[in-house]
Amino acid sequence: MSYNTYLLLLAQHNVGSIDTMYVCIKVQASNDMTPAIDILIEQKVVFQLHRYSHDTQAGAYGEEAAKKLGIAYEKVYKTLVIAGSQGQMAVAIVPVSHKLSMKKMAKALAWKKVALADKEQVSRSSGYVIGGVSPLGQKKSLRTIIDKSSVAFPTIFISAGKRGLEIELSSQDLAFLTKAKFADISGD
Predict the structure, then answer these.
(1) Average pLDDT over residues 175-183
(2) Shortest CA distance to 43 belongs to which of 179, 181, 176, 172?
(3) Which tens digit of pLDDT belongs to each residue from 60-113?
(4) Angle in degrees, CA 53, 63, 85, rounded to 5
(5) Which of 48, 122, 133, 174 has the fewest CB atoms within 10 Å, i.e. the most exposed one?
(6) How is the beta sheet containing 77-84 ordered, strand by strand?
(7) DSSP character for 156?
(8) So what's the pLDDT on residue 64?
(9) What pLDDT does 188 receive?
(10) Residue 95: DSSP 8-state
(11) Are residues 111 and 86 in contact, defined by beta-carbon separation less than 8 angstroms?
């Protein structure tokens, strides 16, 4: 795949009374390409990229993205890699405005107990760095649960696989691509 300017034409989307809708997506500059973006292009999913200048001193990456892009915190979702007590791993996708409920996540997975995976496990299984973990294009395909609050919005924002770059897409498309299920997994 060429990492120069890339133009993708998606056609024949049937929406209501509209027979055909043409959507163009333009991805510029090779440094914006990530495995997550490659998957979206391969699968011909409609998405939009949003860039912002990442502050290396920021600790709450999702909140930084929401603030710098001027987006409600409830629409920006963080990707968390979870470890089970039996060594299994999964992905939780929750709004940055909420914490992950470990109890609800364990229930959604039908596991006894879960905890956040350590940084090395996250990097090994996802191929991404902390603060830039995308649920798309991970090295290992893991069971994925998306907080059900995401269906209230036409689109949500997730990491594009690097700090300072967010993908906007529908939660339904995200669920399809990650083979995820929706569940109530957020706490306060």
Answers:
(1) 97
(2) 176
(3) 777 888 888 889 999 999 999 999 988 899 999 999 999 999 999 999 999 999
(4) 120
(5) 48
(6) 114-116, 77-84, 89-95, 143-147, 181-183
(7) E
(8) 82
(9) 65
(10) E
(11) yes
